[in-house]
Each structure stands twice: as structure tokens, then as C-alpha cells.
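Something for you to look into today, if you have time. Could you write out one complete protein record for me, on any chain you like? Leave the record below and I will have a look.
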Amino acid sequence: MKVGIDLGTTYSAVAKYDRQTSRPDIINNRFEKELTPSVICFLDNGEILIGEDAKDMQAGGAGVIAASFKRGMGDNSFTVEANGRIYTAEDLSAMLLGKLIADAEEKTGEKIDSAVITVPAYFNDFQRTATIRAGEACGVKVMKIINEPTAAAISYGYNRESDKTVMVYDLGGGTFDVTVVKITKGNIRVMGTEGNHILGGKDWDATIVKYVSEQFLEEFGVDPRDDESTKNELIVASENYKKVLTKTDSVTIQVKYNGYSGKYTLTREQFEIRTQFLLNATKDVCIRLLGDLGITWADIDEILLVGGSTRMPQVTGFLEKLSGKPIIVHADTDLAVAKGAALASEFYCSSSTGVREMQITDVTAHSLGALSVSPGGDRFINEIMIKRNSKVPASVRKPFRIDPGNMTNIVEVYTLQGESRMPLDCYVLAKVVISGFCNDGNGSIVDVEYNYDENGVVKVSAYQSGEFLQIDSEPVPGDISWMSDAPSNVASGVPIAKNVVMCIDLSRSMRNSLEEVRNAVRDFVMSVADENTKFGLVGFGDKVGIMRDMTRDPNQIVSALDGLKVNVYGRGTDASPLGTASSMLSGNPGGKMIVVLTDGIWGKRNFAVSEALNCKNSKIAVVGVGIGEADISFLKQISTVEEGAMFTTLDRLGDTFSTIATAISSGSMGIRESAEGGARLRSAEVRGRPL
């Protein structure tokens, strides 16, 4: 039996195409429910609960809970430890898939041997291959990985004869994608896609948790988020409160913790004001996609809402005002993706005769590049091979010259995924070693072919004179900082200096978060500190102040952190720290980075954006970290590197800084001195160069 599986962040579903009725149907789980919570609970006695049972335990605060792990797919730093074992997001996804398949087999009495599994359109190669491995770990053949908005469009467009250009606005529990599709007589052609895989309904839930926790703290002087069980109860309850607010004007929330009991009212208006910045973040994605495709709202016929989080009334109103277009609510908002995947499982099966012929073409969300040396030889660059939003499958072959001095007959090829010419602003996907080519000392030519297959997964091959060359995969080195340095320095082994200025929001709103902020920044500094790294510390509010000038001594920064106080620079955030931080970095050799931590909305945004542009022109990387009510769209405006705007929760702030620390140590996230970094094709002794 073939099925379609929506492996969701919050809920998952399995569907099968019924040839008798010519329609896809959801296969209920063992509780006779269409949706299965994407939650796993590890009990102290070693028992592992998955789905409904795990969700119940999460609400009761029992066991070790793994939820929203889809966001960590392809990221080995995302782990859950339970009963002496470490689980990656891939491990957890395989466990969830196994449960979904077992329930579906029990319900139908049939063996599932193959499946189409959906992923967010903006998933990169790491995340797609991790999803495929998770499926195969369950003993199921993964016929295809399909983008969630594409699956929803298939479900919507199937059996529709009208021609339309539709924007699929897919806001799920943990991810957001927007895709423009052309539906022509039921055929689906994806024109382009954009997204944010760490933005979703969970972020709306988090604002409710923050609101009631702050109210409780104000009233009783203790924070219910300090207790893991109480916090988990709030997280589960907040999802229900959000659903209540989709139907009523207010909700009453009761919180019990540490012997105290508080009752608070949250109105829909308050909720919508507090979450407006999240909607603005989706607006940025929509506008960026339209710009990439060279179209406007006038070219869109309608907007199709997909994903449970689109049920919030504010979403429809927001999009109507933004686009002026009809908003279509999918008849199967929660189930459209699974049903589309079930239809796709028939389309992609050559022996199938149960479903009418339907053409489906998709695109890649990320450009694919090769690490190369610039024509002038002064820097490494990302040589784009396949542009984003190219139709998949896609293949590009390009000749690279092997320097005459390379007589080793070995060349290392690094593959990058991203839009920037700077390689360390991109994902460094893989390293392969090409061998077996001939070099007569005159500078041979090797053709390197890059491929996106139908799943959006990357494959690399190499040829010389039309003959296949041997390619062996190797792990990407832990330290890739050399990609930001000049090729001549890499050859000589000169260490790369790094300079980091931390800018911390000390406005009034940070008063309840200061201790966690202090601890996270302290751990970050100590993890990055070495003899080649300088740090500076800046505080800001309505004014800006230097709390510690550039120093190689991390203890001086830690001492300054111990003295952090709110309101010392004013109660608001009208001042931008970027100019001050830029001046502190001026004159220091090596890579330069500014990390901005804020939890509120800044006053003089245009000035801050202007300062960020000056930083970019000065080759200074700016990374924005937001918590609380920080505006992610604004953080993206002031961040000068790809993936440089990070929105997190207070309890995961340490993890976020660990990600930045790892990036700095490996040389990524824009820590560089050259105007442009890039990808390189290099041998053990010399580099290749594109013709």
C-alpha cells in the first residue's frame, strides 16, 4: 500500500488514495482521530509514548517531552536526552513515522511499503535527506519528498479545470512557507517558493505563555516558567487558549504555581497586537517571493490558506489588507497536505491507473553553488551553479581548471546552498574528493556537474573528457573559517583574527529576563574565547553606552556582565547600538561581527537600518537575536548575513547563542575580512578556477 504522510511540527497525518471513490482519504489513528500529535514522551521506567498518549503526558508535565523536533531536522546540535540516550531530530522523526505507519496498518489491515512524505518548501538539503533517512529507518520506501505547499496545491487543484495563479500561504505549527503556483486544467506548476522554517503557530502560543507568566510574576514575584512541568502545562494549554480566541473575543487563563493561583483575561485584540510582529514576518516572506519572481499582487488571482494556524481571524484580515485579493480557506485546512501527498503517491507510481494524469512541476528553494576562487585569486566565492526557484530536477555542468602545479590527481569540492556570494553566509552542505583525472602539468579541465533531483536533494558528479571520475564523500571539516580568508593566507596557515561586539537591550522590558540573558551571554563568550578573538560589550536603551571596550580577556567581559542593570540607558529602545559597535570594531584586523540581543520594538528603525547598511559596507556581519516581543522582520532588516535574524524563546536563548558560537568557531555567519567570501574548488595544494 502507498500512502501520503504529512510529517508535521505539531500534528501529523496519513492519507491513502481510494481508487473506488477517486479521492484521497485520511487514515485515522488508533484513537480514531485524523491528526496525531507530533509529540514523544520518555517515561522514567523506559517506556516511550508517541502521539496522543505523549500529548496527555505533556499536559500533565510528566516524563521527558520531545516536541517541535521537526524544526531541528538536519541539525545535529538539536538533541533530546532521555534515560541515558541521546536522540536527534532525525531519530525522533523516525520514531513518529513508525508510529504513524503502525497505526495506519492496523486501521487498514494492509502493509505500507512506500510513501510520499511532505516537508516545508524551504527545507534545505540537510533537512530533506534527514527526512528521507527517517522514513527509510521505518522500513518504508520513500517514493518522493514533496513540498507541503505543493501538496496542498495538488489537493486544491485536483479536478479543477479553471486556470489560476494561486499564492499558497502555509502557516503550520512550526514552519511557514509561501508558494506561488499556476493551476492550469488541474495541472500544477510551481513558480517559486520562500519560507521560514522556524516560524509557526508555536510562536503565537509562546506569546500567550509569556503574557500569563509575566502577569503571574508581577503579582506573586515568581515565574511559573522556572518549573519545567508547569511550563509544559502552559505550553499545551496556550494552544487551546489560542483556539478559543479564534471563536471568542477573550479567554480567561488560570495559572497555579508554587502555592499561588492567578487568573488573567486575554482579549483577542491584545493577542493580535502582541503577535502582529509575527504576521509582519510572514509579510516579508511574501514580498520577497513576489520580488524574486518579478510579479506583483496584481498577478495573483487568489490566496489559498493552508495549515491550522491560518484559522486565526487576524490572518485573513491581514492578508486581505495586504494583497486586496480573495482569501480562500482550504476545505481541508489541516488535512490538505496529507491528502495532496496521497494523490502524489499515485501520480508518481508508473503502474497506477486509479487517478487521472496530472502534471506537477516543482522548484528548488535554495541556490546551489560550488566553492571557488575569485577570478582575481584574492578571495573565495560561492560560484552559483543552479539558481533558486529553478525547476527540479535540474542539472548544470561547469568546467573547472586544475592548476598546473597540482600533480596529486586529487581535488576537494565543497558544495554550498544559499544566495550569498560569501560562502560562510551559506550552508556548507558537503565535501567530496574527485580523483582519477589526468593532469599533464598544463592545467587540466574537470567538468563538475551539480544536480537537484525531484526531491530537491543535491547530487554531485565529475567528468573528464566525457568519462566519469571517481567521487568519494568526506565529512565537512569542523573548522571552515579559512573560507573567509584570502587563499594566500590559507596556504600559509595564518590564523584568522575575530572580533565580536555584544549589544544588549537594557530597556525596561528586559527586567524579567536579565538573569537568563546574563548567563547565556557569559557562556557564549567563554565558549568562543581564544587568543585570536576580541570581545566588546555595549548596552542600549534610549541611549547607547560602552560597557567594555575591545579586549582579548573574556573575564573582563564576564565582570561587565555581572554589572548589567535595566533602565541604565533609558526605559525604551530609541537608540541604535550599531554605530557605536562599528566604531569599536574599526581598526581591528580580521573578521568582525555585531550580535544584537533585544526583546522589544525599536523606535528609530530607519536610522538603525541605515547603520546596518553602513556595517555591511564596512564588511561587518550583524546578527540579530530576538526574544519576547522582538520584531523578526526588523531583525532581518538589520542583519547583514543570511539566516542572521534569529527569534527564540528565553528558555532556548542558550541554544541560540551556542549556534552562533559554533558558527564563529567554524568561521561561518559572516565572520570574515574580505568583501566577499565564497565557495572554493581546491586541491590539497592548489585551487581550481572556473573558466
Notes: The first strand starts at residue 2 and ends at 6.
